[in-house]
Amino acid sequence: MYEPPTPLTPPRMARDLIAAIQRGSEPALRELYRRESRRLFGIARRILGRDDLAAEALQEAFLQVWQNAASFTPERGDAAAWLTGIVRYRALDLRRRHAREMSAEPMPADRLTEPALEDSPEARLVESALRRCLEALEGNQRQSILLAYVEGLSHADIAVRSAAPLGTVKSWVRRGLLSLKACLGA
Q1: Closest alpha carbon to 38 in 153, 108, 107, 123
Q2: From CA 61, how far away is CA 59, in angstroms rounded?
Q3: H-type alpha helices, 9-68
Q4: What is the chain's alpha carbon radius of gyration, rounded to the nearest angstrom?
Q5: Structural domains of the chain in order of their starting residue, each with its CATH number
Q6: Triad 60, 32, 77: Cα angle to 5°
């Protein structure tokens, strides 16, 4: 008797797709790209501010996923976080390579994201909660977190931009992240 497969939750599906990629499955890579590319492109776009560079970062990231899938171990973390980290590092690397072309204008403190890339009720709830929690942070903490995680600046770059000591910037980011974690109930 035929039994339909049990539905996989998104985190498990991403983990299973990466496991298939580790075994050399090109269809699994295509499916992972289909499912995750929109979200990951948004992350690269926020860091780089340019679609062409974001597309380049995404391409480099998926090439890295294909070549280094064996480095993913579910025990060390979530598949989505692993993918996000790869895209973030590729985008930051491109940002450094194209630094002269990139705008040096400071980011407005109230900018968190561009229009939601995923238009689902869950995504809107998460975005709303994140905005609320960010607004509750002290100004220096909020600005430092936005510069680090939206613009992709290093702590040293934030220190230069804000004319604050490096240790102070690191404290702002750390305390801000702890406050966000508590606010979001994570």
Answers
A1: 123
A2: 5
A3: 10-22, 26-48, 51-68
A4: 18
A5: 8-103 (1.10.1740.10), 105-186 (1.10.10.10)
A6: 85
Structure tokens at 162: 């804000």
Distances (CA, A) of 163 to 43, 112, 141: 27, 22, 14
Q: What does the block give as tokens for 125?
A: 């709830």
**CA 50 remoteness from chain centre:** 16
- What number of other Cβ atoms are within 10 A of residue 115's Cβ? 6
- By the 8 A CB rule, do 17 and 28 touch? yes
Dump pLDDT digits (tens) for 137-184. Answer: 898 999 988 888 777 778 888 888 888 899 999 999 899 889 888 888
pTM, rounded to two decimals: 0.58
Cα separation, 149 vs 164, whole angstroms: 18
From the CB of residue 21, how many other CB atoms can be counted at a distance below 10 Å? 24
| Cα 126 from Cα 164, distance rounded (Å) | 31
For 119, residues 6+ apart whose C-beta sits below 8 A from its C-beta are: none
